[in-house]
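WARN retry 2 of 3 for item q-0093 after timeout on previous attempt; input resubmitted unchanged.
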Amino acid sequence: MRQPSILMIEDDPSVSTLTRDLFLKEGYKVTTVSRAMEGWDMLQKEAFDLLILDLGLPDMDGLELCARIKKDSARGQIPIFILTALGSSEDTVRGLEAGAEDYLSKPFNEREFLARARAILRRRDPLMTKDEQILSGKIRLSIASHEAWCSDSPIQLTLREFDILRVFLANPGKSLTREEIVRMAWGPSTNIVPKVVDVHVGHLRAKLGTEGKRISTVPQVGYKLVPAKN
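OK item q-0093 returned
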């Protein structure tokens, strides 16, 4: 089985060493650099399964690098896991809007960090064989390939957008609180701020076009997916 390959851009040597050792114990291949442009150069040379990105880098704002990567046609699909000392809900939203898949504040729980990194890597595993598909109206998801279509046209979703859409499709017509969506999409052990759901829902609505209007806001509750009309 191929080793997952991880690139870590982190300028704090203690954090870099800790996270590197955690991944090495899992049998992953890890490349570490301390500057944004070093990381950018590595991304042009090698393919990685996951990027761990600090925001407070000495040569560039990590959010700027995140947005730059996501706009790159060759590397834009790499999942980005932000690990940073900036932990306010506003910082979380900014990270997600820049295209990050997940966000964890320092200091962090090692087990939670590994669990969330493993979850991202599992969703990218090409060896999954069961091609379960979910259909709802003009929306179709392939669980195995992690692909999505709307009106038979492929749509590019981040891993987290895909997970949230799957939650909606599995619960048609049910009003879901933001906390319930976080628990089902991120897992039961997480410190994700529920308001980040609003960012992802906004992205989903835009990417789904007219089908996105089926994701309805439920005042003082959260959201629900209006069942497709037959």
